[in-house]
Write a structure and sequence with these properties.
Layout (H helix, E strand, L loop, with lengths): L6 H20 L5 H15 L5 H4 L9
């Protein structure tokens, strides 16, 4: 799996994921926001976004 996300993209996704998880802790009745928060966290740690593949998008500047 080739990385297709740059550092800035990865950091922004991690922040969004953490914010969604915090929102879930504040209001547990909206637990599904936490489920949506897991997706950007996983993609930020792996630095691969499956939605970028069909559109041939890559924000990774370190393509080796």
């Amino acid at each position: 799996m080739k990385k297709n996300m740059g550092k800035t993209d990865s950091i922004l996704r991690a922040i969004i994921g953490i914010l969604l998880l915090i929102f879930t802790l504040i209001d547990p009745s909206k637990y599904w926001w936490g489920l949506f928060g897991i997706i950007p966290l996983i993609t930020s740690f792996v630095r691969f976004c499956p939605l970028y593949v069909p559109f041939k998008i890559s924000t990774n500047k370190d393509e080796n």
